[in-house]
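Ticket #4471: structure export looks truncated?
Reporter: QA, pipeline team
Priority: medium

Steps to reproduce: submit the single chain below to the structure queue and open the exported record.
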Amino acid sequence: MEFAPLNDQQLIERYLNGDDKAFETLLNRYKDKVYTAIYMFVKDKAMAEDIFQEVFIKVVDTLRKGKYNHQGKFSQWVMRIAYNLCVDNFRRKKRRPTMYATEEFDIFDVLGSKEPNGEQQLIKSQAHQKVRELVDRLPPEQREVVILRHYADMSFKEIAALTRVSINTALGRMRYALINIRKMIAEQEHVLQHEG
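Actual output as written to the record:
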């Protein structure tokens, strides 16, 4: 049976009716995205793999108990579980997550994708590596919003709920992230001009 054309909800229904292959298709559809997001938060391969396993154990558990509600996208629900497990992990370690760009994820590819033209020009004018370095230097709260918005495809409303801040705070953090990136670029260009 070919499952690829089925949407997430149809796959979930088939899985709940005893078809394990349907869940395998669902897992394969999102595993790279979920694992990469977890790895970006924890920066540790073994820990990322543990949390990834935990995410899908929770997913299966929730589905089997019939507690999954069909509102919103399945992928965003899974990303929320992953994010919460990462945060729990860091609470146990008493530190905030530090997010970095990885080989699998390039902030350059997504930062300009949904922003107004000014931002697109800004991002496109920079080399990939440089932009990744700039994002790495942002304060944790700003990096978090950039990653959740552009990588996890979350709305600002979802980011606000997830990070337990107001929508205005989430929007403000994104705005400050872009302002900070611009400032860092301007500083680098100033230094280059004076060195030449």
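Status: closed, not a bug. The export was complete when the record was re-opened. Leaving a note from the reviewer for reference: The chain has ten helices and no strands.
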